Amino acid sequence: MKEIFKLVTHKERRVLGLLCFILGASFIFYAFFALGMKKSHSRAVDLLSAVQRDFQTAETSQIQKAAENQKWKLARQDIQELRETYFYRDLEWGELRMDLQRILDASRIQHSQKKFDYVVFEKEEIRKVLVEFTVTGRYVFLKNFIHAVESFQKFLMIERIDFLDIDPQGQGIKIKIQLAGYHAIF
Phi and psi dihedrals of 66, rounded to 5? Predict the structure, then answer.
């Protein structure tokens, strides 16, 4: 190897040394700066993909919340429609009393005096009236009465039925009925 160096002149040695120095400096630059930039770029790409995932999650969440908000808005509209259409409105319950009397008259059954009891549900903003009475009649007429109450357009529902007496020959049935009517508090 010494023989090769002897063949190279002093000026050529300088040029070779300079080229080796440039080569070393290039390697050091690549090792420290270019690889660091590559790693930095890789971290930036990873960060960008994480931010994109977070954005996608946030956007999906926003769409879901908007859909849920729309459902709640429709539910509020349905509740308002229920309050306006199916609940009784008068504070004296006169309308409920008249409706009940019409159903009883149409069913052609005998009934006892009605006992009224009132309950207020403040959280739900609803008042409930319970009407309890005894009816006597043939099965067909009682069935018509129950059907008329259950298919009535307002919130008038049968809460309880107790059979008090059943005629073995099928001539009559005596039952105690408890109805509930609802009034929305506006």
Answer: -65, -40
Q: Enter the pTM of the model.
A: 0.56
Q: What is the pLDDT of residues 36-80, one digit of tens each?
A: 777 777 888 889 999 999 999 999 999 999 999 999 999 888 888
What Rg, from alpha-carbon coordinates, does the chain have? Answer: 45
Domain boundaries, the chain: 2-82, 94-184
Q: Quick count: other Cβ atoms within 10 Å of Cβ 139?
A: 13
Domain 94-184: homologous superfamily in CATH:
Ribosomal protein S6/Translation elongation factor EF1B (3.30.70.60)
Helical pair 139-150 and 94-107, crossing angle rounded to 10 deg: 150
Total residues found in the chain within this entry: 186
Task: Give kind and range of the element (H or E) at residue 160.
Answer: strand 156-166
Contacts 24+ apart (CB under 8 A), 27-33: none
Q: What is the dihedral of CA 42, 43, 44, 47, to 10 degrees?
A: 130
